[in-house]
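Example record

One chain of 277 residues, shown exactly as stored in the release files.
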Amino acid sequence: MTRTLQSSDRTPNGDHLTEMVAAELFDARIRGIPIDPICGMFGSADVGSAYLVQAAGIRKALTTGDRVVGRKVGLTSASVQKQLGVDQPDFGTLLDSMSITNGGTINFETLIQPKIEAEVAIFLNQDLDTVDLTLKHITHSIDRAVPALEIVDSRIKDWKISITDTIADNASSGLFVLGESSLPTDLVGLADIEMTVSGNGQTVSQGRGADCMGNPLNSLLWLAQKMQEFGTPLRQGDVVLTGALGPMVAVQAGDAFSARIGPSASVSITFSKGIKA
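Predicted structure tokens for this chain:
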């Protein structure tokens, strides 16, 4: 299921600074050239303005014919927060153009400074617009859960980001890959599930479900509550990337990655050997 953003997703008319920053980030993505941090324009703690920039950027993408297919939660793992020097989760928007087929090859030259992480992706079977959402609502909303690889990519030079930089930059979203095998969807099963990422045949990242805000379902609940606050509740058919289960790993041209989550669920991707100019 796909849907367009609602009016509350959009930036206020006449907000020149918001539109200007969104345009700079959008242009950086298209050209493949990162820009300086933008947090100085809003302040490193003004997450409200950063989300307005993010929404403006998504609106620009939609004018090109792209579609919203879900959301992602970022910065859920303590190890990732430490890597990037931030102290809270955030969310971004998943577009149809970001989806890559499991086992496929990504053109490395289309990315700027990519990193990869493994996580649990959840498909929703109902809208999450109930007042006072609880974990019980969240558990009943799950259609299925599958392993996922997220390729995060920053349009900010050298990943020198504050929380407002990454939020404005659509939570540093790049691409995502979904596996086919089903994962547990209960609280205990998801908390205990183990994850291993292999890069070029070597283990490069490990973690477990509990490393994602204590449980990937806690991440989904946090997101559902945030989306209600923004007036854009999660909807039936949405896919949600619930957040990294372990440290991010830098990607180089020609790399091949696979992730195993649980005893048998896996997902993989390869990057082309092309070298950026």
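Notes: The longest helix spans residues 16-31.
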